[in-house]
Structures are given as structure tokens and as C-alpha cells.
Amino acid sequence: MLAYYSTVQHKVARVRSFDHSGKDIDNEPLYEISVQEEITARLHFIKFENTYIETCLDFIKDHLVNTETKVIKATGGGAYKFKDLIEKKLGLKVDKEDVMTCLIKGCNFVLRNIPHEVFAYQKDSDTEFRFQTNHPNIFPYLLVNIGSGVSIVKVESEDKFEWIGGSSIGGGTFWGLGALLTKTKKFDELLQLASKGQHTNVDMLVKDVYGGAYQTLGLSGNLIASSFGKSTTADKEFSKEDMAKSLLHMISNDIGQLACLHAKLHNLDKIYFGGFFIRGHPVTMRTITYSINFFSKGEVQALFLRHEGYLGAIGAFLKGAEQDNPNQYSWGENYAGSSGLMSTSPDVYPMQRTRSGTFDMLEMDRLERPLVNLPLLKDPSTYIPDTVDLTDDAMARKYWLTCFEEALDGVAKRAAASQPDSVDAQERAEKFRQKYWNKLQTLRQQPFAYGTLTVRSLLDTREHCLNEFNFPDPYSKVKQKENGIALKCFQSVIESLDSLGWEERQFALVKGLLAGNVFDWGAKAVSDVLESEPQFGFEEAKSKLQGKGRSLDLDLDGPPHKCALIFADNSGIDIILGVFPFVRELLSRGTEVILACNSGPALNDVTYSESLIVTERIAAMDPVIHSALRDEKLLLVQTGSSSPCLDLSRLDQGLAVLVRERQTDLVVIEGMGRAIHTNYYAVLRCESLKLAVIKNSWLADRLGGKIFSVIFKYEVPCK
Q1: b/e string for 422-432 if b means 16 or more Cβ within 10 A?
Q2: What is each CA distance from 446 to 308, 359, 384, 455, 554, in whole angstroms?
Q3: What is the pLDDT of residue 6?
């Protein structure tokens, strides 16, 4: 296992306001778009078999060692086994780090930074891996590391942990006894034998002793009463498979009972299992899961980690990088450069795997700013961003994977067209298309590869692949043009609204919000219209809406809110003619407004930097917006996200601080990605409005409506 840090140079789209003084601004672009090089930090973790150690050391020598490098961090058995080879080949001193300290540091890192890191294993379910929502407070937990023996560690904080128990009966016992019983020397082959065996041929069951269940004690007749018990009375040879399976059950049950007792003793309900005995093997995960469920009477769940095989290397790297304090940052998994969790089924890609559940690579990108929970979430520990789990819903999964496949050629074409002056744009666009297509095929076979499969993860994977091939913002020119067109209409929209009576204006404002949300280039039904009908505009969008008239009213007749947090969606008509008139109305009522936009580009969603320029131009036309900006009653912030969807548990820390300081009591979430694909069921501690236009026929039909039906969900928290 190799872990290293690199700086990655990639392209980013920047916007900068023109100096329009003395110019005819009607014929000038709203702002300048430039593509610049940016350096970001990336962590690389590469897993390899020991047989490739020489190749790995050659890679380190050629690419990672410089004249300032004196020491290389190492942990685990390899730190001792390959110490002399490493020092000779690289000319560096090997600094061995404590194994358990590294494991725990690595575990804390993945629990904090990878939302779908933890899973429960369910062999007989349609979904093998049941991913858990990470609790915002990851401590305390029990880490059961099953190597040669078993170590049980209670982890209370980042730096506080203690060994509270263990056993000499662990993976080494299974391997050693298994070798004696079956003459099989390889661990993986031993597990393969166990997967084919029938332990009841060797084990004595409760029903073998009592003729059925032992009802007085509530014991099922199929429970193991004595491991290998039948070998004392049966006058026959037992198969290698049956003996291996019996041995696996015996050791797993022992470990499970021990882990349960320690969890109860220390009042812990989270038990994570790791070590080479687990290593993603379906047979061991299944037996450990059964054991924990039985001995805890279903009160405790056996939990496993997607990146379990990386923990030691991650921890060793973090120890070596302590002077840079990597834990002060938030990190995100880069789906484009990471391998996925493999299926435990031998029928899935049998040639691509030598062992079930293994990874090849993990890449983590450092995010510009720390990410935290939205303070207004009612219960962050139960918050699930995504509305539909495609891992579970086979029909929805098939539809959305096909939908993304069919859209792929168009996305690649737009990516190439966004860089007309680049000689290799077509070549890079084709590489993007091929990479994302391969990801989609992997997800068809293994929907759990990157955690819970959702529309959000499909969109985010596409954005990661676009960025890998230097297409940072394929819709930048579209957004620039649409922002310019919409700004020319802003004053007439405001004049029209101001001419209405109060009740009519409220209805018109909400209808305008929804009409603006129609302009979403990520929806095929809309992009087809926008490409075939260039004159399609705000009024045409209003006529498309499928709603029930006055049922769209938002009750603003009460006292004004202190502060409204609005998560904006698309550029152009959406934010300028839909969102800003609504913002203006709130400001006029005395409500402060925090307008949150994406930190980075995704589809035609408005970015924070674009919103600054748009707001500046609106303020020059409108005294309400101008004075609100001047008096800091209108605040523009970035979300910390570069996704068309919204995870309220991973928001920019600065936004969270503002929400608290301004005593925010209304949250508005706009758009299909943010209010339907995510957050439809999100429960907040304040009033909330979730609104969107459904621009997908299949989704509209599933929800019992028509395309361009509206979602208008106004929620007041229970007192």
C-alpha cells in the first residue's frame, strides 16, 4: 500500500467583470471568461500485492523522491519485512510508525471525509452493501482489528484511544488450523473452500442434542451447540470445504461475542471491523454480521469500511504530514480517479479480481474551505441528503443509468464546443466520454461501488470526469449569454410586479420563481426546447407550468422573517428574473437575505463569482438591492459545493457561521437537483420552502404528475 501527496495542476473557469465605463454595455458581454491553471492538493492511495514491491519502489524512486527527502514513513508487517529492501533501493531511512495509531488515524480520516464510508453486509439481500449515514460526531466507537490475533480498541477522540481487550484466536488461528485440517496454505483459497462448505455436516447443532429447539432457553434448533462436535461420533471423512466452513464459524462467533461484550461493557453502539481477516471477503463479513446480531439480540450492527485496506497507510501518511495539519481541511473522494468497491459475487468481472472486495486506488482532493453541517438541520445524525436510493430501486436505477448514457454524447459535444480554440478539445472530450461511459457500466454491475448510488452521485461523477480532462465549465458561454439577456429584462419584470396589488404580487413572485427554474440545461426536455426555440423566454416558461393556480401562494402575510437563506439554482432567467424579485420582496419586508451559490461550476448552475457580478449589475438598476448590499442586509456566500445537488451536511463553514449570526428562520431550496433529488425529505428547525419544476417525464409520471408540474413544499416545524 502506497500513500503520497501531490499538487495537481488543472484548469478552472474564472469570470471577471469588464470595466464598462464609456462603453455601449448593451453590446458588450456581461463579464470576461478565462480558463486559468490552478494548483490543488491531492492524496493518492494505491493498493498493490507484495509481489509488486520492486515495481512500487521504482515508481517511488522515479517520481516521489527528491533531494530533500530523507525519511519514508511505513507501518504494518511490511515495514519490518521490506525495511532493508526499501532503504537499499531508495537510499532513505525507514521510519516505522505504530500500527494501531496509524489504523485509528486512518479510520478517523475516512469516517470524517467520506460520507458513504460505512456499510453493513447483507448477503441474502438484493443489495449486498447497506451504506450508513455518517454521524456528525464520529466518536466514540469500537475498532475490532482482526489480524493474526484480535485487538479491540475503544476510540474516544482524535488522539485518545485505548486497547481494552483482544484474543489470540483470530485470522492467524483460522489460517493455521485451516492449513492443518485441509492442507491448504493460502488464506484466500481457504476462504474459497469455506464459501463452498456446509458447516452442519461437521458442527453439532442444538437439534442434534435435543431433537429440536431448546425452548426453555429460547435457542433455535439450528444454532451451533458444539463446533466440530460431529467429528467425535461420525465414522467418516469430512470434506475440506465443510471443515473450513466450521472453522470459520467457530472463530467468527468467538470474535463476535467478544466484541459484543466489550461494546456493552463500554456502552458503545458502533463497532467497526477491519484487518486482513475481513479485507472485503463476503464469507467473513457474513459470519461476523450473524455473530454480532445474535449475541447483541439485534441491538448492535457489525459495520465495515469501504476503504478498510487503506487505513494504515492513510494514518502513516497523516503522521508524516502533521506539520501541514491535513486534518484542518475537508477532503472529498475523487470518483474519476478512484476504484470502486467490488462485488462479492464471483460472477461479476471474474477476470478483474483476484480477491473479493479489494480496491486499487483512492484519490482524495483537498477542498478549498472546511465543510460543516447546516446549523438548521433538525437532527444531523439522521439527515439523508438523497431522496431515492438507486442501489435499492432497480427500476429507477435502470432508468437513470440509461438517461445518463443517452445524454453522454451531448455532454461530450458541448464540452468540446466550449473550448473552440483548443487543438486537443475533441480528443479530450472523447476521453471524457469513454471514462464516464466505463464508470456507468461499472455502476450497472456494481451499483454500490462508490457508496449509495443516487442521481447526485451520478452527476458528481460526471463533473469529476469532466474536470479530469480539463473541462471545468462547459456551460460558461451559455451562462454568460443568458445572464446578459436576463439582465436586460430585469427592470421591466420589476415594474410589472410593482404595479400589482399585494396578493397578486405574491402569486406572481412565486410563479416567477418556478418559471425561472424551467431554464435548466441539465434537463433534456428543456435543453431540446432551448436549442430548437432560441426565442423561448420567461413568459413562455410561465405558460409551461402545470399547477393549480392559487395553491402556489406562499403565506407572507405574517410578521417578517429575521433572515432567509436561499440556495439558488440556475444562471440567467432563473436567478435574475425568478430569484432576485423574490429576494427584493423579502428585503422590502425587512427580512435579511443570505444568497448561497455554488463555489464551483456544475451544468448551468450559477456560481458564487458569477452571482457577484450579476448582483452588482442589478444593484446599479434597483435601489432596494443597492441599499441592501450597502447595509449588509443582502449577503452573497458560497456553498462549498460544485454539484447540481445539495448536501446540507457538507456546507461551507463561512455560510454556517452567517446562518447562526443572522438568526436565519427561513430556508428556500430551489431546483430539481437541490429540492427533489436531494432534500425533499430534509427536516429543518425553521420554516422552509422547497420548490422546483419537474423537467423529466419519467420522474413526473412516477410522482403522479406531468412534465413541468411544480413542487411547492412549504413546511413549518412542529412546536
Answers
A1: beebeebbeeb
A2: 18, 13, 21, 15, 43
A3: 84
